[in-house]
Amino acid sequence: MLGGVLRIFYFSILSFLIVEAVIDNQLQEVDPEIISTNVLRIGNTSNFSLKCGRRYCFENEICKRLSNDKEEQCVCKEGFSQSESGICEPDMESITNVVNGVPVETAIPFRIEGPTTVRLPQNAVNLSIVFEGSIDRYDTLNYTYYWEVLDGGGFGSADTYTEPVLALSGLKEGVIRLRATVSNDSLRSFRDVSVRILSEKKPNKPPVALIRPASPLYAVEGSRVVLDAEGSSDEDDTQLDFEWKLLNGPVVQLPAMNTAILRLDNLHVGNYSFGLTVKDKEGATDHRTVDIIVSAKRDDPPKAQISECGEEVSRSTIDIRLPRKTLLLCANISTDDYGITSYKWFRIDDLITQLAVDYSGSSTPVLKLTNLQANEKFGPYIFRLEVSDASGQTDSATISILVNKAVNHPPQPDAGSNQTIQLPVASAVLNGNVKDDGEIIKYQWTQISGPNEVTIVNGDKSKCTVSGFEEGVYQFRLNVTDDGGLTAADDTFVIVVRSKNEPPVARASNVTVYLPSNLAILNGSESFDDAGIVRYMWSAHDDVPAGIAFLGLSCDQSIAMLGGLVPGIFHFDLTVTDHSNAQSTTTVTLTVVTGEEQLNSVEMYLERDFNDVTYRLRNKLEGRIATTLAVQIPEATKVDVHFSSFAQDPSSGRLRVVFHTDFANPIHRKGEGANSTIVVSATRAVTILRNEVDMIRDFHIVSINTLYCILDCSGHGRCSNYSKECNCDRYWMPNLFNYLLRGSKLDCSWSILYFGLFIVVTFVFVASCIVVRFRYRSELAMTEWQPSKNRVLSRRRRRRRFRRNDKEPYPNGQISGTSKLNESSASYSLLMASDSLSSENETELNAANANRHATVEQNGVELRGRPSVQFAE
C-alpha cells in the first residue's frame, strides 16, 4: 500500500511538471517578448535612444522608413503597440491557464486598470485588478493577489504587493514592468503591465527657420529656383510643419506649399518675396523671408557650325574621293543658349549647270548629298547653313566640298642621278621627274645633309638650282604631292670635290661715319673662296686710338662693329682663311668725320648722380630745352632735342649730357629742295640756355658750353675741347687783363717777346727816373754850399794876383829854378790851405743838409737853396 501511495505522488509531481512546461511553451508562442523577462532593460531610457530622422527612438521602438513617407520614423517593435501617451507597450492578449493539467479558457478573467504613463513631478500611481465577466463578488474573497516586479524595481516602490490595488510611490524616470497574479485553490491567472515614468516636461522652445540659399537670390527669367528649408531645426527634435507663402511680387503658382523644399519654375521678370513659417508639434512657430530678383534672360545669337556626320569638329572644307557619292552634313553641333528652332540649307556656288548633285533635308539638321561628281576642274560645291533661335536671331556658316576623281595611285618621283662637281664650281641643277596617273600639284626640294646649308632656288619646281657648295657630300630630297593628296619622295646626292685650292679673296669696302653716330660697321661678307671661308679676323693698325674697340666678338665675324669713335682716319685689316689655311688680307679705311650735328653739340654738366637719372628726368630736360629754344628761335616752330651721351665725369662725379638740336626747315616744307632740318648752332643754343635761370636751378645745371671749343685763340694757339680754354703757342700768352678778370685763357693775343721787352723798357725807364731824381737831389744839396766855395776861390785868386804883383816879371817869360821852387812851394801851401778849407766846407755842408732834411720831414716842404751868384774873376 505504501508503494501505491508513492507511485501516485510520483505521477502527480510528474504531471505538474509537464503541465508547467506546456503552459510556458504556449505563452512563448503567443507573445515571447511579453513573457520574456530579458526583453526590457532597466535604467534610463535615454541611454538606449537611437537617432532616427528628426527624433530619437525610445525603448521598444525601432527606426523604419515607411512606404508613404520619405523620412525614417520610430515604430513599435513586433508584439508592442503604441498607447495614447505615445509609448510602446506589450500587447494585452489572453493568456492560457492550466486547470488540472488541461488547457482551458481563462478561468479568472481580469484586467489591470491604471495609468501606464506617468510624467514627473507626479511620483505616485495606483494600479487596480478588476475582474471581468460574471464573477461573484463573494467569490473574490477567496482569491489571493500577488504583484511581482519583473523589471525596473529601482524606479518605484509599494508598501504591499498582495492587495488588489498596488500603490506605487517614489517614482523615478524609467519603466517598471509588473506582473499581477490572481489565484485560488484551483485556478491561477496573471497579467503583465508596464508603467513608463517620463521626465519632467521642459518648456517648449520655438523652432528656427532657415532658408538656403540666403536672401537676396538672383535668377534669370525662365530658370528654376529651389528654396531649401530642410536646415530648419527644433530643439526638441520634433517633426516640423512647413508653410510657404508669396508675400510680394508677380503672381506665381506654388507647386507645393507644405514641403521643406519649394521648387519655382518659369519665374517672370520682377522682384519676389517669399515667406516661410515652420511649426513644431507644440504649435510654436518661426518665420523667415527670402527675396528673389529675377532679371531678363540673356539671349545670345546662335552659332552655326557644320561638320561631317559622325565628327564633333566643325569644318569649312571637306575633301572626299569618288566612288563615294553620298555625304551627310550635320548641323547638330550648332549652339544656342536656348536652343535652335530652325535649320535651312542653301547651295550657293555658281556651278549648278556644270556640277549636278542631289540633296535632301534642307530644313533639317542633316543634309544628305547624293550623286556627287568630281569637281577638281571646276571648283568645290559650296553650301550655306542658316540657323535661327526662338528670338529670331540667325547665324550662318558655309562649307566647301571637294570631290576628287576615283582610283588615284601614289606618284613615282625621280630626283635624278647623282652628280659630282669640282670646285670652284659651287652650283648645280637638280632636275626631277614624276610619273602619276593624275596631276602633280606640289614639288618641294629640301636639303637632308651636307657640310653646310646651301641656297635652293625654285625649290617648289621640278627643276631647281643649288648654290653655295663646299667640299663634301650633299643629300637632297624631292617631295611631290598629286591632286589626290598622295605624296612620295626620292633622294639624290651631289658630291663636291676640290681640284686645286685657290686662296680666298678678302674684300671689304671703306667706311665713312659722321659723328655723333658712335657705331661703325665694317662689312667683309663680300670675301669669297672656292671652298668657303672658315674664319674671319679683324685687327686694328697700331696708330688707331685704343678707345675705338670692337663690340662683342664681332672681330671674328664677317661683319665687325666698332664703338668709341673719334674724328680721324683709321685703318683696319681683314684676314680671311679657308679650309686649307690659305689666307688673304685687305685693309679697310675708316673715316670718322665730325658732322654738323656733332660740331653744333652742346655739353652740359649737372650736379646729379648718374644712377638717379631716369627717363622721366630725361624727358623733362628734353622738353624744357626744346621749349626754350623754340620760343627764342623765331624761324623754328618746333625744336627737336637729340641726346648723344649721358655719362658721369669721373673727376668731379657730375653728370655730363651731350646733345644737339634741330628744327624743320621752312624752305623744305615749301618744296624748294632744301634740307629737311636745320641744326641749331651750338653757340646760339648755349647763349639761349644760359639765360634760362629757372631751368638751371631746377635741373641743378653747373655749366653749359659747346662740345667743341670755338675760340680762335688769336691765331696763336689751339682751344682745348675739355677745358674750353686756349693752349697758346710758344712765345705767346693770353691777355693778362682778360685772364685776371674772367679767370680763363680766352685768347693768345700777347707775345711773350714783346711783353718781355716791354717789361725791360719799363724797368729801365723806372730805374732812369730813380737815378735822375737822385742826381737832382744831389745837385740841390750842392747848391747850398756853392757860395762859400766861390768865396774861397775868390780869395785864392786875389792872393795869387797879389803875389804876382809883388814879384817882378821875368824876362823872356822864364824864371829861375829857385823861383820855380818857391812858386811851387807857394802853390803847394795854397793847395793845402784850400784842401783844408774844402774839408771844413764839406763838414758844414753835411750839417746844413742834415738840418734841411729834418726841416722837410717836419714841415713836408723842401726848401731849395738859391743858386749862388758866380763872381767873375
From TrEMBL:
Q: Does the record bear Ion transport in its keywords? A: no
Whether Signal counts among this entry's keywords is yes
What Gene Ontology cellular component terms go with this record?
cytoplasmic vesicle; membrane
Q: Which Pfam families match?
A: K319L-like_PKD
TM spans, by residue? 752-772
Record key words, sorted? Membrane, Signal, Transmembrane, Transmembrane helix
InterPro entries listed in its UniProt record: Ig-like_fold, KIAA0319-like, PKD/Chitinase_dom, PKD_dom_sf
What residue spans carry the region label Disordered?
841-873
- Residues of the PKD/Chitinase domain: 114-200, 208-297, 313-406, 412-499, 510-595
Q: Which GO terms describe its biological process?
A: neuron migration
PANTHER family, per database record: FI19480P1 (PTHR46182)
Q: What is this protein called?
A: PKD/Chitinase domain-containing protein
